[in-house]
Amino acid sequence: MIKFSFYFIILLHIGLGIFIAYQRHHQTQIPFLPGEETKVWLIEAKVEFLANPNTPTMISLSVPSEVPNYKIFFEQSSSAGYGFNKVEENGQKKAQWSIREATSKQTLYYKVQAARGDSQQPPTQQINTEDKKLSSLMWTKAEELAIEDILSEAKSRSSNDETLTIELIKLFASKSMGESSSLLLYNKDRVEVINAILNQAGVQSRIAMGLKLEDARRNQSLISMIEIYTNGKWVLFDTLSAEKNIEENFFLWHRGNSLLDISGAEDAKVTFSMIEQNISNMELAKVYYDKSIFRLFSIHSLPIEEQGIFKMLLLLPLGALITVFLRLIVGIKTSGTFMPVLIAMAFLQTSLLPGITAFIVIVAMGLVIRNYLSYLNLLLVARIATTIVVVIFMMVTASLIGYNLGFNTGMTVAAFPIIILAWTIERMSILWEEEGAKEVFIQGGGSLFVATLAYLAMQNSFVEHLTFNFPELNFILLSFMLFLGRYTGYRLLELYRFREFKGQ
Amino acid sequence: MAFLATFNTLKKNGILGMNERNVNYISKYNDRRLYPLVDDKLQTKLLAQKMGISTPNLFFTIAHQHDVKELSKKLEPLDAFVIKPSRGSGGKGILVIKSKTKEGFVKTNDEIITIETIMRHVTNILSGLYSLSSTPDVAIFEDLVIANSVLKKYSYQGVPDIRIIVFRGYPIMAMLRLSTKSSDGKANLHQGAVGVGIDIKSAKAISAVQEQTRVYEHPDTKNSLDKIELENWIELLELSAKCYDMTKLGYLGVDIVLDEKRGPMLLELNARPGLSIQVANSQGLLPRLQEIEKIEEIAPNAKERVSFVLEKNWV
Questions:
Q1: C-alpha–C-alpha distance, residues A399 and A358, integer Å
Q2: Are B6 and A502 in contact (CB < 8 Å)?
Q3: What letter does residue A220 receive in the DSSP assignment?
């Protein structure tokens, strides 16, 4: 029973760690690997107009909110001196600039950054009556006949709403219905005409305005596409090539109503430019964080200074686990149970070779001085305190010598935990007296070996990324520790210790 | 001829490993709150006296730093004595003075030290240098054991002692520990002493080990070790078994010395006895531990438990 609940707790911790980490990854897009990048599009709308003097100016630009297949994670307007607002009208998001007084030519910018991804809300809602009214045109008798003509031709070639749309677009493009099509297109926009005909044929359709995404394009204007509602979803059609499902490269800017409303100005025009960028997934994730529950449970929400501390602290469990492993499974002796982990933390700041060198030099010199101290017959606490002061002096001296020789050793030696070093010196010195130099080298070497392995694991950028961004993974480390805590098998070094039994 | 043993051979020989000892025996059978009884040698000594188990004579203790000044006066009537930290472990901090001369105190290795050195040593003990958790400690001054003349010839300096593993009150494995030159007169195996496995039933030597390697003679005295046979064996076993009644610790290492005049005396107890005794005995502890574990009702009398063990054929 105890055994069952023990393994249950272990599995629970592993499950919990994996579950929370996966949820965090899923909701906030934090990548599991450091340095992952995503391609994003930066799209900039430039509004130019001539402001009428002495009248307040108001500019209202339709801006994208929910784009199929894209996720907008950054929006910004730049417009010096203008008041800026975002409002929603009939389900369409608008950017509004206003200014009391402006003259001559004015330029406003609106920037959007979007990454490919599932749209926040699947576009499955039914067409609303507003769209229908806007797309209905007034026809003359002759035009109505032309519509019937084209529609019957298209219907004869098609089997459903989708193919009807495709055929209709093709008919207008190929000019094979020359007279009828040119009559309808006279003074009218081709896409609006196609949309109206589709509506008349009972197909739910609407016009979508957007941009074809191509890298480093400037001075682009929006192009119109047809969207029809079929089989429970909206399908987008290119009005030139009649291709469907073109969302991959089509960035939907707005639907239906007008792109730009102005008052107090004239000669307004909107042009678009776009560029493809690479940004790291970490940057991307920061944007999603605010919308997720993990905002409350993330180290990212702490001040930078504290984040730095936790970055170090969250590495500790791994170092501790490595120590547990090397002591319980391998059977390496160390001086002080978790002293190697603290030394490894110091190595993180000094890097390995300078760290080991500094450690050995300080401990060796400390041992010499400690040997002298033992003649002074001091009480333990006073002796440790003296050793601490000696260690500090040695660090200062090492830094000064190093600096004068042109090495940056100051940083290196100051990283070591002084109290730990003092205790290490004390313990080694006792060990030397009691058990001889051999045991000092065994334990000192064991400590350095464990510290080096712990350092190598902790300085790995992948490990640092995971422990910092997914602190819940420490649950898994915890369960390993619990598991190792119940390991009753032989230690690897016991195979050597009990080697006399090998032949029996 | 392999350099290492394999997991399989260790298992087949029933070798108890460090992890298994800690998890399945020490933490299972040794109640934590009983540890002070054995970790504190002064407590063990007083308890043993109460139970009628003989231990080396206690002269006095020093618990406070200001008493160290009076040390030379206190040591005046004593010719030979042993200083021990009450809570020391693994033989750390034990200073043995075998005689006094004009120059000072003579250690077992004939080195002469001054009263100042002894005072410094006591100061170290008091400040907790040798104690398990570096907490302040007490220095014990007790009588020097005169080694049994039969065993003495095997040992280099120091006093040989007998380590018996007592599990749930049953003595299950024994070893004679002989100090060597390299162990500095101490009888701890990890300090270089020789361990001679002693058959529980016959009290005869089985095999010997030093530094985890098989030896056949003492490295310093060159005496052959395979002829050793201990006297008063049943008395020794009963003494060790009584230590269970005294402490109630289920997994216990009992260290006994044989004094020339006073016979077997309890030296100290250990709640975390080492594993090298298995190498000295060429036997694993596990089969014996498992056999004793099967006993549902422990015999209340130490004599009964010893006779139960003597009926076994464990070699």
A1: 10
A2: yes
A3: E
Cβ atoms within 10 Å, residue A31: 17
Residues 6+ apart with CB under 8 A from A334: A323, A326, A327, A340, A443, A446, A447, A450
Task: Assess contact for B45 and B58: CB atoms under 8 A.
Answer: yes
Contact between B137 and B87 under an 8 Å Cβ cutoff? The reply is yes
Element (H, E) at A261: strand A260-263
Q: Are A319 and A75 in contact (CB under 8 A)?
A: no
Listed as ranges, residues in chain A with pLDDT below 70 are 1, 118-138, 175-184, 186-187, 242, 244-248, 256-257, 286-292, 295-297, 377, 407-413, 503-504
Q: Which of A267, A297, A327 is the last residue of a domain?
A: A297
Contact between residue A73 and residue A284 where contact means Cβ atoms under 8 Å apart? yes
SS3 content of chain A, % helix, strand, coil (to 5): 55, 20, 25
Residue A187 lies in a domain: yes
Give the residue numbers in B contacting A (CB under 8 Å), as ranges.
1-7, 9-10, 12-13, 15, 17-20, 23-24, 65, 92, 116, 119-120, 123-124, 127-130, 134, 190-191, 209, 212-214, 275, 278-279, 282, 284
Tell me: ipTM over 0.90. no
Let me know if A64 is exposed, middle or buried by CB neighbors in 10 A (0-12, 13-18, 19+): buried
Q: What are phi and psi for residue A473, nearest 5 degrees?
A: -65, -20
What gap in Å lies between CA A64 and CA A250, rounded to an integer? 12
Structural domain of residue A118, as residue ranges? Answer: 37-127+206-297
The structural domains of chain B, ordered by start, are 7-54+147-310 (3.30.470.20), 58-143 (3.30.1490)
Closest listed residue to residue B237, CA positions, set B288, B294, B307: B307
- Which of B19, B114, B119 has the highest number of chain A CBs within 10 A, making it the mutation to test binding with A? B19
- Nearest neighbour of A430 by CB, restricted to B5, B23, B129: B129
Pair (A218, A242) in one structural domain: yes
Which tens digit of pLDDT belongs to each residue from B36-55? 888 889 999 999 999 889 99
Report d(CA B141, CA B155) in Å as an integer: 24
Q: What percent of chain B has pLDDT over 90?
A: 53
Tally Cβ neighbours within 10 Å of residue A346. Answer: 22
Interchain contact, B212 vs A497, CB within 8 Å: yes
Q: Look at residue A173 and tell me if it is in a domain.
A: yes
With H, G, I as helix, E, B as strand and everything else as coil, classify residue A168. helix
DSSP state of A306: H
% of residues, chain A, pLDDT over 70: 87
By the CB < 8 Å criterion, does A419 face chain B?
Answer: no
Q: For chain A, how many structural domains are there in total? A: 3
**Same domain for A319 and A354?**
yes
CB A220 within 8 A of CB A241: no
Q: What is the pLDDT of residues B51-74, one digit of tens each?
A: 889 999 999 999 999 999 899 899
Question: Given CA atoms B278, B190, B240, B297 in this order, what sign does their dihedral have?
Answer: negative
One domain for residues A225 and A282 = yes
What's the full length of chain B, in residues? 315
- Compute the nearest-CA separation of B232 from chain A (Å): 30
**Between the CA of residue B144 and those of A255, B71, B267, what are the distances in Å?**
102, 18, 11
Task: Give the residue on A whose Cα is nearest the Cα of B215.
Answer: A500
